[in-house]
Specification:
Blueprint lengths: L2 H19 L8 H8 L3 H8 L7 H11 L1 H8 L12 H23 L7 H23 L8
Helix pairs in contact: 1-5, 2-3, 4-5, 6-7
């Protein structure tokens, strides 16, 4: 598909999704939505009227402010749905798992010859520190549900 076509789809999809969230009898007024996104009311009006499309950073701010329902409305135009809030404890668990896996792989590589020399140790220490930090974050995380 041509770039101009994608830009048209983006402007249309975002405008339609914004119509569900911003305006009279909606979740947000134009000014409160602009404040939540961190943009001007004029920029928001331009997106609503399909004069312009938001930059990626502005679109991500919209996604954060309006939540998965907004994301699904926009992405449905290209056949994608299923966005949802991610429990931050799940993200922390994945980060801890990945960090521990990197540390384990580094240990396995370093110990392959039966000992860990000073250079291998120096390479492992930052990985161990990162793993410890991620594990502590996971252990001490307080679960707080996210609401839109």
């Amino acid at each position: 598909m041509r770039k101009a076509t994608w830009k048209h789809i983006a402007k249309h999809a975002i405008s339609e999704a914004l119509a569900q969230f911003v305006g009279h009898n909606r979740h947000f007024t134009r000014h409160s939505a602009a404040a939540a996104i961190g943009c001007s009311a004029r920029s928001l009006a331009n997106w609503q009227q399909q004069h312009t499309a938001p930059e990626m950073s502005e679109f991500l701010a919209q996604c954060k402010a309006f939540g998965p329902e907004f994301v699904n409305l926009v992405l449905a135009h290209v056949g994608i749905t299923g966005a949802r809030w991610v429990d931050s404890s799940i993200s922390e668990a994945r980060a801890a798992h990945a960090s521990v896996a990197r540390l384990g792989a580094a240990f396995a590589d370093a110990y392959e010859d039966g000992h860990i020399d000073h250079q291998e140790r120096a390479a492992i220490i930052p990985l161990a520190s990162d793993a410890r930090q991620k594990i502590e974050s996971f252990i001490h995380h307080e679960r707080t549900p996210r609401h839109v």
